[in-house]
Amino acid sequence: MVDPNAQSSAVQNLKQRTARKGASKGGVVMTTQINESELEAQFAATIGAKDRIEPRDWMPEKYRKTVVRQVAQHAHSEIIGMQPEGNWISRAPSLRRKAILLAKVQDEAGHGLYLYSAAETLGASRDELTEKLIAGKQKYSSIFNYPTLAYTDVGTIGWLVDGAAIVNQVPLCRTSFGPYGRAMIRVCKEESFHQRQGYELLMTMMRGTDEQRASVQESVNRFWWPALMMFGPPDDDSPNTEQSMEWGIKTHTNDELRQKFVDMSVPQAEALGVTFPDEGLKWNEERGHYDFSTPDWDEFWSVVKGNGPCNDQRVAHRKRAWDEGAWVRDAALAFAENSAVDSAPTDSPETPTADTADTTAEEAAK
Ligand code: FAQ
Q1: Of 209, 224, 99, whose CA–CA distance to 153 is shortest?
Q2: What pTM did the predictor assign?
C-alpha cells in the first residue's frame, strides 16, 4: 500500500530537521514555520546541485509518483525478464553453459529485489506493485514479450538486451533519487558481466559450424529492432522525458541513448561477423554517428499495450508464480514475527545473565 501520509510525514520531517538546524543556539529551541514554497525551493536547490533526494526528504508528490512508476516498471522488467532465458536453463548445451545461465537469471532476480526495495522506501510495497503488474496496471519492458526460439537467443539477449540495459542504466547511477541510483551501481556491474557472457557465447558459435553461424545471424535479426525499442518512444513522442530530465530522474533522452547504443553495437557486430537488419545503417561523417532507419513504432505501441507475441504468457506465468508462492511469503512473515517475539528482551529464568552466561556456554559445549 502506498502510504497516503508519506508526503505529510516527509514534510514534517524536513520541517523538524530545518528547524533544528538553526535552533539550538544557547539551548533555546525555536520553532520555524516552513511553508510549501520554501520546501519546493529546497527541493529545487538539491536537484540543481545534483545532490540526491533521499526517502525522508520532502519531495513533490508528482516526483514521488514518477520515481515509483519508473522504478516499479524497471523492477517488473527484471523479474519478467527471467522468463525468456529461464526457458533455456534445462536445455543449455553443457554443464558450464547451464551454470552460467542459472547464475545470470538469478542475478536478474536480485536486480528486481533491489529495485522493489528502492520503491519500498517511498511507501510502495512489493505486494502492491506486483498486484498492479498482474492486473495490467503497470508496465514492464517491451523486449520481454518476444520469444526465445533457440538457445542462441541467450547469447543475443546477453549481448544486445543487457547491452542496451547498460547504456540506459549507467546514467541512472547518478539519478536524483538516492536508493535508485545506489541500486543501479551494483546492477550495472552485473549487467556488464552478462553482456560479456552473451558476446562470448555468440563468438564461440561464430567459430563453429555454418549452421551455428546462421543461427546467430537469425537471432540477431529478430532481436535488433526490439532492442532499439527498449529505449522508449522517440523524444517527441515521450510524454515523461522533459519533466524527468528536469528532476534529474533521467539524465539523457530516449533518442540520445538509442544513438549511443547503435554507435557502440556496430563495431561489435563487425568483430563478431554479423550484420544488423537495417539497410539504412551507415556512418555519417558529418554527425559523427551512425544513421539508422526508424523502428516500427506501431509494433512498439502494440507490444506495450499488451498485444506482443508473449504478453499473455509472461503475465500468466508471473501470476502463477505469485499465487503458488503465497504460502512461502506467509511462512516467511510468520517466521519473522515469531523470531521477533523470541528475541524480545525478557526477564524469564531461561535468559542467560552475566552471572549464568559462562555456565550456559559450558553446558552448550558439552
Ligand atoms: N517497454 O515517456 P516515456 C533489463 C512506456 S531492464 C514498455 O519515454 P519514460 C535487464 C513508459 O513507461 C529493462 N513500456 O517514459 C535485463 C511510458 O508509459 P507510462 C528495463 C515502455 O519512463 C536484461 C510510455 O511508454 N529497463 O533489460 C518502454 O520517461 C536481460 C511513454 O514513454 C528500465 O526500465 C518499453 N521499452 O522512459 C533483465 C530502465 N519505453 O509509464 C533480464 C529504467 C517506454 O507513462 C534479462 N527506465 N515505455 O504509462 C527508463 O529508463 C525509462 O522508464 C524508459 C522510458 C527509458 C524505459
Answers
A1: 224
A2: 0.87
Residues present in the chain in total: 366
Pairing of strands 289-291, 282-284: antiparallel
Residue 141 C-alpha to ligand 1 middle, in angstroms? Answer: 6
- Indicate the helix (H) or strand (E) that contains 238: none
Q: Cα–Cα–Cα angle for 180, 299, 293, nearest 5°? A: 90
Q: State if residue 304 touches ligand 1 by the CB under 6 angstroms criterion.
A: yes
H-helix segments, 273-310: 297-302
Phi-psi region of 248 (alpha: psi -120 to 50; beta: other; left: phi over 0): left
Look at residue 32 in the predicted model and tell me its pLDDT. Answer: 56
Q: Which atom of ligand 1 is nearest to the CA of 140?
A: 7
pLDDT in tens, 121-172: 999 999 999 999 999 999 999 999 999 999 999 999 999 999 999 999 999 9
Cα–Cα nearest to 266, from 234, 302, 227, 229: 227
* Any atom of ligand 1 within 6 Å of the Cβ of 141: yes
Give the three-state DSSP class for 283. strand
Question: Is the distance from the beta carbon of residue 73 to the nearest atom of ligand 1 less than 6 Å?
Answer: yes
Measure 201 CA to ligand 1 centroid, in angstroms.
27
CA-nearest residue for atom 12, ligand 1, is 139
Spatial neighbors of 205 by CB under 8 A, at least 6 apart, are 152, 155, 212, 213, 215, 216
